[in-house]
Amino acid sequence: MKRTTTAAVLVLVLGLTAFAGAEWNKGTAAYKSGDFVTAEKEFKEVVKTNPDHYAGYYMLGVVQLKLKKRSQAVANLRKAVELKPDYLPARLTLGKALVEAKQYPDAYKVLRTIDLAKVPSSQRTTFALIFAAAATKSGHASDAIRVLQQQLRATSKNANLYRALGAAYVTQGQDAKAFEALKKAWQLKPSDGRLARDAVTTAIRAARRSRSSDQKKRYYSEAARIATGLAQKSPTFDHLLLAGETYLGAKDYATALKWFEKARAKRSSSALVQFYEGQCYSSLGKFNKAIASLQQALKMGPDSKLRRKIYEQMGYVYAKQKKFDQAITAYRNAGNSAKVAEMERNRDAQLQNEKARQERQKYLRKIKELEAQIAELRNLGQESEADQLQQQVDDMKKTLREQK
Length: 404
Hints:
Layout: H1 2-15, H2 22-33, H3 36-49, H4 54-66, H5 70-83, H6 88-100, H7 104-111, H8 124-137, H9 141-154, H10 159-171, H11 175-188, H12 193-209, H13 213-233, H14 237-249, H15 253-266, H16 271-283, H17 287-299, H18 304-320, H19 324-334, H20 337-379, H21 383-403
Helix pairs in contact: 2-3, 3-4, 4-5, 4-6, 5-6, 6-7, 6-8, 7-8, 8-9, 8-10, 9-10, 10-11, 11-12, 12-13, 12-14, 13-14, 14-15, 14-16, 15-16, 16-17, 16-18, 17-18, 18-19, 19-20, 20-21
C-alpha cells in the first residue's frame, strides 16, 4: 500500500508543472530523492510566496506525513482541500491521515463526497479500505458496506476488503453476514491468525443469537473447523481455549474437554477453563466431576462475573442431584433470588415426599404384621377373629391405593 501511494504521489508531482519555480523544483527533487527535510523546507517557501498554491500545501502535507509531523500535515492538507475542493489527491491523503490519527468523524466528512468510480483504479481498493474505516468507526457502517461491496465486485479476491466488510457488519450487529465476510477473508488468507480468530468469535456470536437449532449447529461447526486449524497450527492458550469453546457450543462435550485439557496444561491457574470443564461434565451427566471442576474454579480467584456463572452452574448441578440445600447456597452466592426460592420449594416438597414415603413404609409394615396375625389366627381355627382383621387389612390397602 505504501509503495503504491508513493508512486502515485510521484506521478502527481511530475504532473504539476503549472507551479514550476525554483522552490517547487527543489522541493520535488528532494522528495523524489527521499530528502524529506529539504523538501519540507522548500515547500514551506512555496506556500509562503504563493499562499493560494494548493499543490504546494498538498506536497508540504505529504512530506510532513513522511516526517511523522501528522498534526502539521493535516493542517496543510486541509488548506489544500479548502483551496481546491475537487483536488482528489489532497482529499484522499487528508482522509488517510485522519484515519491514522483516529479522527474518524473528520475523515468521514472529508471522504464521503468522493465517488469511487472517479478514483484511479489503482487506488480504489486503498480508498475503499480507508473510507470503510472512517465510516465504520464514525457510525456510518451502511456507507462502508456500500463502498466495499462496490469495490468487491471489481476485486473479489482481496482479503482486506472482506475483513473490512466483516467489521462493518459487526458494528451493525449483523453477525451472520459478518461471519460470511470474515470466513471469506480467512479462506483468501488462511495464514492470518487474527482473521481466523475474528471469524471464529463472530461465528460464536452468530450462533448464540440464532433461534434455529440447525443454524446454531452450523455456525458452531464452522467455527470449530476454523478454530481447530488455528489451534493445531498455533497451540497457544487462547487458541486452545477458543477451540474448546466452539465444541462446547456445538455440544460435542467430549471433544471440548480434550481441548480444555490442553488449554489447562498451558495455564493451570485458569478459572475459566475449569468452569468450561464443569459445564462439559454437567452436560455429560458426570455431576461429581462437574462439582469438583467448579469448586476448583472458585479457588482460582475468578472475577465477579465469572464467579456468578460458576455458582449458577453449581446450583444447576446440585439441583440435578436433588441436593437442594447445596443448590440454595450456590444460587444465593450467585445472587439469583428466583432460583433460591425455587430450590426452597423443591426442598420443601422433597421433605414432604420423604415424610410421606416414611409414613407409607410404616403403614406397609403394619399391614404385614396384621397379615401375620391373620395367618396365626387361622392356624388356631379362630376364623371370626381372622376375618375381622382381614377386613381391617383390606380397608388399609384400599386407603393406600387411594393415596396413589
